[in-house]
Amino acid sequence: MTTERSMTTTEMLDDSLALLRARWYLRNATSLGERVRVWGRPVIRNFGSLIIGQRASLVSGAVPIQLSTERDGKLEIGARTFMNYGCSIVATKLVSIGPNCKIGMEVLMMDNDFHQIDPVERAVRPASAPIVLEENVWLGARVIVLSGVTIGAGSVVAAGSVVTRDIPPRSVAAGQPARVIRSIDD
Questions:
Q1: What is the model's pLDDT at position 2?
Q2: What sign does the CA torsion over 97, 42, 57, 180 have?
Q3: Cβ(47)–Cβ(75) under 8 Å?
Q4: What is the DSSP string of 89-105?
Q5: Is the four-CA dihedral 34, 142, 132, 168 of positive or negative sign?
Q6: pLDDT tops 80 at residue 116
Q7: Beta bridge partners of 175
Q8: What values do phi and psi take at 14, rounded to 5?
Q9: Cα–Cα distance between 139 and 159 in angstroms, integer?
Q10: Does residue 12 have a pLDDT over 70?
Q11: Given 27, 115, 122, 165, which residue is catalytic?
């Protein structure tokens, strides 16, 4: 038996405003799906390609979400993905977030390290490497995902982890650097 609850007038107003905010703040997106919602005031810097799937939700309340694409960069946010406040995502080449992902507060994803380790070469930007989150990935609060990482479908990354290498599908990863601590059984 399913119970359906109708929205109150306040909830309908809040939802309508979130839809309008999405149209305003994401007006320079390359592609914006239907019923995308934005709460708060995100900081959007789009010089490349910004694609946001239908029914994605961005909560930019306590701390603004920052989405940035450079000239040749592509940032894809899949359908029905939820992104919490304070996230910062930079795409110089490719950051692809699949559908149904849950992105916790203050998550950081950058597909470029922006400097070399060698002090003499520090002003030279290294090559970018794509970040890919497959379908239904859950990143806990304050996760850092570094360049060149793929996180497999259905995986969970624990809060505060630093992801430096690929995570296989249906895995739970934690730590600094993140390591698989168990798999998620069917």
A1: 60
A2: positive
A3: no
A4: EEESSEEEE-TT-EE-T
A5: negative
A6: no
A7: 178
A8: -60, -45
A9: 7
A10: yes
A11: 115
Q: Which two tokens stand for residue 113?
A: 């390290």
Place of tokens 């306040």: 10
Strand partners for 151: 133, 167
Q: Is 34 a catalytic residue?
A: no
Task: Identify the three-state secondary structure at position 17.
Answer: helix
Two structure tokens written together for 88: 């910062």
* DSSP label at residue 51: E
Place of tokens 């599908």: 169
Which DSSP symbol is given to 63? S
pLDDT at 3 over 90: no
Tokens encoding 181: 């601590």
- CA atoms of 79 and 95, how far apart (whole Å): 15
Q: Phi and psi (nearest 5°) for 50?
A: -120, 115
Closest by alpha carbon to 75, among 137, 21, 29? 29
Phi–psi pair at 142, nearest 5 degrees: 60, 30
Q: Quick: pLDDT tens for 133-172.
A: 999 999 999 999 999 999 999 999 999 999 999 999 999 9
Tokens (6 digits) for 91: 């795409």
Residue 110, beta-bridge partner list? 90
Query: Which residues neighbour 168 within 8 Å (Cβ) at sequence distance 6 or greater?
Result: 152, 155, 180, 183
CA-based nearest residue to 34, from 66, 74, 79: 79
β pairing state of 171-175 and 178-183: antiparallel
